[in-house]
Amino acid sequence: FLSAYVLASANWDAVGRAVAWNERSRSATGQSGEESACVFYRHKDDLSVLICHVTCYIAEDQLFQWTEKVFDCLQSRELTVTVLSDRSVADYKTAEYLSSSSAPFLRSLHSSVFSDQPVCQSLEQPNIITGLPAAVLNHCQVNRIAAVVYHCYNDVSGPDSVTVETYRPVLSKLGRSIQADCSPSADVLRRFVRSSEIQSNLYI
Questions:
Q1: Looking at the Swiss-Prot or TrEMBL record, what is one Pfam family this protein matches (predicted)?
Q2: pLDDT digits (tens, 9 = 90+) for 32-81
Q3: CB of 138 within 8 A of CB of 64?
Q4: What does the alpha-carbon distance between residue 54 and residue 28 come to, in Å, rounded to a whole number?
Q5: pTM over 0.90
């Protein structure tokens, strides 16, 4: 979503990079060391807006250390963190039947000091979030930082136009600094889809 609809514009400067070295990131097919990194972008007109675009795998034993290092570089006062993540709808637990038209959909979790109203309902028990989104939210909860995680449950192996549209309401909450491009160029979308297809074995 960020690659195709936000970062493709000329309003962002890459200001830093963090590489997570582990077995999975080194052996990722079609990804170079630079491509399998976490890249930090800063808005040209509003320097207080920062995007951390994570395109690499971060192992479970690296989550705490990685999160600590990133937040050590940020001023926690008046900081608000928004996390966008996705997961297969097969991992979503519910007693009700989910029709094929139900996905994709958003669920949210937030820290106790987050005072704004999320754009979707909270994640129901016994569902949980894991990995990097959970590590970031846990860090924010412990350090009393306003944070919200938006979890998109989808039924496709890679991102498509319907899935990325699901995130659009989140941007309305982020103000004018982060705007989605309503019609990204064909070259941007083609590059985005091609990078997703490299790791897909759906038709093999």
A1: PAC1
A2: 444 457 888 988 888 888 888 887 778 888 898 889 988 888 888 889 99
A3: no
A4: 14
A5: no
Question: Tokens for 160?
Answer: 């498509």
Sign of CA dihedral 60, 71, 46, 20: negative
**Which residue type does 149 have?**
V
Give the C-alpha separation, 164 to 2, whole Å: 9
Measured from the Cβ of residue 173, the count of other Cβ atoms closer than 10 Å reads: 15
- Nearest to residue 114, comparing CAs of 151, 90, 150, 153? 150
Question: Own/partner pairs for 197-203, CB < 8 Å, 24+ apart?
Answer: 197/158, 198/29, 198/30, 199/28, 199/29, 199/30, 200/157, 200/158, 202/157
